[in-house]
Amino acid sequence: MTGPDVTGPDVTGADVTGADVTGADVTGADVTGAEPLLRVRDLRIAGQDTELVRGLSFEVDRGETLAVVGESGAGKSLTARAVLGLTPPGLRVSGSVRMDGQEFRGAPERLYRRIRGRLVAFVPQDALSVLSPVHTVGDQLALAARSVRRLSRRAAGERAVAALERAGIPDAARRARAYPHEFSGGMRQRVVIAMATVNDPALIVADEPTTALDPVTQDRILRMLVEPREGTRPAMLLVTHDLAVAAAHADRVLVMYAGRFVESGPVGPVLRRPRAPYTGGLVASLPGQLATGRRLPSIGGSPPRPGALPSGCAFAPRCPAAADECRVREPQPREAGDGRLVACHRLVDLPDPVTGLFKERV
Ligand SMILES: Nc1ncnc2c1ncn2[C@@H]1O[C@H](COP(=O)(O)OP(=O)(O)OP(=O)(O)O)[C@@H](O)[C@H]1O
């Protein structure tokens, strides 16, 4: 199925200028093996009279973790939800969301229900809330397995136990008959991982799944979510406000600001040598920078409300490098080498990295 918007002009829209991004396969209906697992093009999510996500394009390859970072309100969660077909009611979504070569944006809910679990699984912010208190853990896992596969009760039960075992729950066959409240906090988290992985999804969408947990537990859960199964590692779209989590778990990072694309690329280079001033500001305010004895720099001000965006680049009012052009036109993503895309008018004349711009700010 190929939605009309895949071939429409919106998909190759003006805000994606890099040759790789508008590559030949963007408009082609032919799906080749080279297509990434997830390809989002010109995603727009609008409320009553404000655009909340504004023309976002990105890709996630098989087995790769992409962290989506940015301050509160950047549109990270809405983007994740749009990928899952779970955008809150009342919001309008346009653009293209292709998974495994198939267009899903605008697909009927019954199609999305089928792919959620089988192709893509969701681990929400309040991950523990996905567990029902009135059913045994084994029944819940078996139900999740049967919702996407034709399985006998027995086979689904076996799949449930195998998922619990893989998630590190000892004596899984017996524990499958217990209710969530009978598990300790740590074991309940493992049950959630079993739920997310019971159908071997190719992509896991995780929205700040571990924010409330201590760093060691956080680290373990994120690793377990993408543990290879039968030699294949699931891909992950990881929404986080924590750059340290992104650095530890992601292969690539996508930085968002006020619903827009700011910068993307391999996580090490982007965080070590940010090129967009906004990324530079985020990196400069990492607590780790304190260890060097510098004052903690920060980006002055706060992000604009969706209904009160400035003209031009939304970051310009907070940007120490903003020029006249920045207050007039929104920058489009441009190739910046090393698999990097950067949306900044001043890309070519700013220091590389841009972190220094923020050193003297408090
Ligand atoms: N259902 C909704 N109706 C109207 N506006 C919404 C709705 N959901 C989110 N928004 C607005 O959309 C913008 C982006 O929200 P989103 O939750 O995606 O941000 P975020 O980057 O995930 O932030 P956080 O890190 O705080 O979760 C915010 O301004 C938010 O207030």
UniProtKB/TrEMBL annotation:
NCBIfam families the UniProt entry points to: oligo_HPY
All residue ranges annotated as the ABC transporter domain in the record: 38-283
SUPFAM superfamilies recorded: P-loop containing nucleoside triphosphate hydrolases
Annotated protein name in UniProt: Oligopeptide/dipeptide ABC transporter ATP-binding protein
Domain of life of the organism encoding this protein: Bacteria
Membrane topology, record value: Peripheral membrane protein
Keyword Nucleus annotated: no
Positions of region (Disordered): 1-27
InterPro entries reported in the protein's UniProt record: AAA+_ATPase, ABC_Ni/Peptide_Import, ABC_transporter-like_ATP-bd, ABC_transporter-like_CS, Oligopep_ABC_C, P-loop_NTPase
Family: Belongs to the ABC transporter superfamily.
Statement: the UniProt record of this protein carries the keyword Glycosyltransferase: no
PANTHER family: DIPEPTIDE TRANSPORT ATP-BINDING PROTEIN DPPD, OLIGOPEPTIDE TRANSPORT ATP-BINDING PROTEIN APPD
GO biological process, one term: peptide transport
Coiled-coil parts of chain: none
GO cellular component terms listed in the entry, alphabetical order: plasma membrane
SMART domains reported for this sequence: AAA
Keywords associated with the record: ATP-binding, Cell membrane, Membrane, Nucleotide-binding, Transport
GO MF annotation list: ATP binding; ATP hydrolysis activity
Signal peptide feature range: none
